[in-house]
Amino acid sequence: MASTSTTADVIDPHRSQAEDNYLTHDKGLLSWILTLDHKRIGVMYLASVLTSFALGGLFALLVRTELLTPGRTIMSADTYNQMFTLHGAVMVFLVIIPGIPAALGNIIMPIQLGAKDVAFPRLNLFSYHLWVIGALFFITSMYLSAIDTGWTFYTPYSTSTTTAVIPAAFGVFVLGFSSIFTGLNFIVTIHKLRPPGMTWFRLPLFIWALYSTAIIQVLATPVLGITVLMLIVERAFGIGIFDPALGGDPVLFQHFFWFYSHPAVYIMIVPAFGVVSEVIAVFSRKRIFGYKFIALSSVAIAILGFLVWGHHMFTSGQSVLAGTIFSAITFLIAIPTAIKIFNWLSTMYKARIHLDTPMLYALAFLWVFTIGGLTGVFLAVMSVDVHLHDTYFVVAHFHYVMMGGSITAFMAGLHYWWPKITGRMYKESVGRLGAVLVFVGLNVTFFPQFVLGTRGMPRRYYNYLPEFQGLHQLSTIGAYILGLGFLITAVSLIRSLRKKADAPANPWGAATLEWKTASPPPYYNFRTVPTIDAGPYDGYEDMVYDEKSRGYVSKASRA
Amino acid sequence: MTSFIASLIAPILAAPAEPALPKSPDSPYFWMPTRSSTVADQIDWLFDVMVWLSVISCIGILGAMVYFCMVYRAKSRSANERVELTSDHNTTLEITWSIIPLVISIALFVWGFKGYVDLRTVPKDAMQVHVSGQKWKWSFTYANGWSDDVLHVPVDTPVRLLINSTDVLHSFFVPAFRVKIDAVPGRYTELWFHAIHAGEFPIECTEYCGTSHSDMLTKVIVHEPGGYEKYLEQAELLEQKKPPAELGAELYAKKGCKQCHSVDGSRLIGPSWKGLFGKSESLSDGSSTQVDENYLRESIVDPQTKLVQGYPPSMPTYKGQLKDHQLTALIEYIKTLK
């Protein structure tokens, strides 16, 4: 049974969209810079994150172009080292970590929850401003002397290199607070602003995912903050925390760094799981299978994620005992992750599947994340990891899960919620073409890198032995295909903004609350507080597709 | 435009192998290099097990996905097809597909653990070589005090490497032996292997260490029985017999000077050696000095004392790393570079 008390807010699909919405409600630059509307904040994040993605992607294409030949192709060794460092730092800190939570989550989550806004709207705006400030420090460091330490900043190289480590590290410090405040905001919002009837197990899985992510953001990010602060202090004052010449321990930095950065990868992927759950249910016209298991597995992953950081350090000189414990717990995390994949597949069993662009990306996610996840198992096995550590096998693994996982899911969510956010439908044929190009590009770029890695090609190499050239060239071709896919998608999405804002309220026939508002929603989200009496994936059978508005409406309203 | 494209394609088509670069022996395996140490068999076996498990899982998961998409594909949205009512949860299924991966995980973990303990347990009778990593070269010191930039070992003998770094993190990796350990400044790490094939195998640095990280390559030469002892005997003798300038040219490559100093006049990290001897050099404190044998010697063992203006203070000291006759050789070599 669909939830009923929001009929006042069910928008007549035939009504003109000239009505006031959150995009048109207020005008002027200041109404955006000082907005307290979570939707506007999310849109600013979206634009910022996608721009950063383009920048990080450009760096990636330059890196892959350089790797067409061993020795110099288009840049010097120093420039190359800066290029891969910036690619990593921009993608990790400016794109993927804020990514789905700050961009899509900010816009959609409060509406999906049934709330008017997040718990702390001013803190939300501050989070965005901090993102901008952090990004500015990054860009400044690029102008001064772009960092060449790798995004991991390992000491003592990072404490002795002459590049602008301090501004970049400080940018990371500020970005950390952006992340912490968003996490805090989301936790309080989800606990306290649920409307009547919205029990924990009626929450959409996207919200469960954001909640688990928020826990990690709040608990782990402070450790990163302190770590980069120590790095800055070490560089500025030469105290001797990490520098062995002064009595410090370089491996200590690795422990501090990975204590955050491992949970960080779960910040990157768990929201993606949330998006995939939403899309698969809606595009299969079927309740998600194993809802409770999917919801709770996100929490399990969030907690276990704190206990495995040493699996990045099996060859660091870390003790055998420590390595053993880390490896054992790493295997445990594989289980809740596998459970999700099986549940998603089961959702598709005996469903009615629609292969629109969001679903294509979600299916691409299943494929690519399975490969990425399985290759994580190779790295968790201690003896095999000794051979694979710091080779291209690792590079391939994390690109499969981050690019193939997080970014693909981001694309799925972007297309899924595009009509809701902008009020315009994107062009479906181009969307599908983009999805196919991205999927093919991903695999052609990164699968050869597994082979490069097992054959002994180390990572972060400007020069390489000639025997590796063929696979490198194949990988570069893939990168261009990938770039093309994103370019086509970007152009198509931007062009769709030129159209009239007449997207239907519910083009996909979803049952979660955001689809009960107009596309785009009014600035106040709901006229009255909704009452919930059904689950987030209930009621597909009560909807029919209306040809005229090209969206779903309830059977009752049709009759 | 066309010349730009041509300049991109030309290097792609031509990829000459530099004779000086270490080369892996051809491997009969798709994924891995040759199995040239005693541990390689078990590591590759475990790797292969995981490849098969992955292939089976992928076929299962992705096969199901593709099958469902074909068989359950909706005709269109307007058709408003009804979904068959099936259950939305099944606890038995959840438990089953948790237990099976768990059991497989435990097995993989245990095998990996055992292999790792093997990798970290040095046999008692292992022959020791001291390894030092610095930006951007490896150097190996043998029991008799002889030092080289290539690792020589006898076949069929357990070898223990005691490794450290004199500056930043590096990592010592021999793909053919499946061994790797970081070189950490301020402490020692160790690695052992037992080579089963004679031949030459690349050694690569696998922890990012700056500009020439990807040039920090050398090789391990595994000698047939008797070869290693002969090498040690002759190496020191041969070196002392060589004319100094010729030895100097070899040391220029072996001791890592060439990473930062060119001999053709081009500027690298440090000043070029071409035309260096006899010229008047401007120093960072404003003074100038004549480049003679004493200046060169001081610059090698105490490089921070007189810094050439316009160059970074990056050079590490070679004090204790070069014997007297080697210092002389380098100086004589520099004198030949007009």
Output the CATH homologous superfamily of chain A: Cytochrome c oxidase-like, subunit I domain
Helical content class of chain B: 25-40%
Spatial strand order of the main sheet of chain B: 3-2-1-5-8
Total domain units of chain B: 2
Q: Whole-number average pLDDT of chain A? A: 93
Detail the poorly predicted runs of chain B.
Answer: 11-19
Q: Taking Cα atoms only, what radius of gyration of chain A do you get, to the nearest Å?
A: 23 Å
Q: Class of chain A, according to the CATH hierarchy?
A: Mainly Alpha
Strand pairing plus helix content of chain A: what structural class? mainly alpha
CATH architect. name of chain A: Up-down Bundle
Overall mean pLDDT of chain B stands at: 90
Give structural notes.
- The complex is a heterodimer of chains A (559) and B (338).
- Chain A is mostly helical and 559 residues long.
- Chain A has one domain: Cytochrome c oxidase-like, subunit I domain (Cytochrome C Oxidase, Chain A, Up-down Bundle).
- Chain A is built from 17 helices and 2 strands.
- Chain A has a two-stranded antiparallel ribbon with strand order 1-2.
- In chain A, strand 1 and strand 2 (551-554) form a beta hairpin.
- Chain A is globular and about 75 Å long.
- Chain A starts with 29 loop residues before the first helix and ends with a helix.
- The model of chain A is unreliable at 1-9 and 12-18 (pLDDT under 50).
- Chain B has 338 residues and is α+β, with helices and mostly antiparallel strands.
- Chain B folds into 2 domains: 23-60 and 93-241, Immunoglobulin-like, CATH 2.60.40; 242-336, Cytochrome c-like domain (Cytochrome Bc1 Complex, Chain D, domain 2), CATH 1.10.760.10.
- Chain B is built from 7 helices and 12 strands.
- Chain B has helices at 2-13, 40-71, 91-120, 227-241, 244-254, 293-301, 324-336; strands spanning 127-134, 137-141, 147-148, 151-154, 158-165, 170-174, 179-183, 189-194, 199-205, 217-223, 280-282, 288-290.
- In chain B, the strands form 3 sheets. A 5-stranded mixed sheet of chain B has the order 3-2-1-5-8, with no helix packed on it. A 5-stranded mixed sheet of chain B has the order 4-10-9-6-7.
- In chain B, helix 2 packs antiparallel against helix 3 (91-120) and helix 5 crosses helix 7 (324-336).
- Chain B is elongated, with a radius of gyration of 28 Å.
- Chains A and B meet through helix 3, helix 9, helix 10, helix 11 and helix 12 of A and helix 1, helix 2, helix 3, strand 7 and strand 9 of B.
